[in-house]
Amino acid sequence: MPTASDPRLSTFTWPVRVYYEDTDAGGVVFYANYLKFMERARTEWLRAVGYEQDVLRERRGILFAVRRVTIDYLAPARLDDCLSVTSRLVRAGGASLEFDQQVMRDSDASCCCRGAVKIACLHADTLRPARLPGDLLSELLPFASGPAEPLS
């Protein structure tokens, strides 16, 4: 299991190339697609720290869903741009995870957008809120760069 001392996981970066399907009629990335890029980066971060979402659903009976997003769009990305999507776990609570994320254009290091995403833990069968399993939470807490909810 990776540890929080691994610098690659404190701020995790996932590469994305902009394809034609990602762009709108103006030739820039359609705004909602940045959320897809961010989702992929969070999923790959979770995989890198040792958890796959399908395994969590099948073996633990939990899944994650976006509860809240705030996002600022700062510069356009265009067809064939190479982007770096960063994910940083800021807070791990009893039933949620909060991430700060950025999408950077590699060619000039411009920040295309940045956002904060709160992920809720849900029971896979009912889609109702669920507490993060204690062992999972204790393994994720060291990666959080901000204050964490106390376990109760």
Question: What is the topology?
Answer:
Elements: H1 7-10, E1 12-17, H2 31-48, H3 53-60, E2 62-73, E3 82-92, E4 96-105, E5 110-123, H4 134-140
Antiparallel strand pairs: 1-3, 2-5, 3-4, 4-5
Q: Your description of this structure?
A:
This protein has one domain (10-143): Thiol Ester Dehydrase, Chain A. It has a five-stranded antiparallel sheet with strand order 1-3-4-5-2. The protein starts with 6 loop residues before the first helix and ends in a 12-residue tail after the last helix. With 152 residues, it is of the alpha+beta class. The longest helix is centred in the N-terminal third of the chain and has 18 residues, at 31-48. It is elongated. It has helices at 7-10, 31-48, 53-60, 134-140; strands spanning 12-17, 62-73, 82-92, 96-105, 110-123. The chain is 24% helix and 35% strand. The protein contains four helices and five strands; from the N terminus they run αβααββββα.
In short:
The protein has one domain: Thiol Ester Dehydrase, Chain A (Roll).
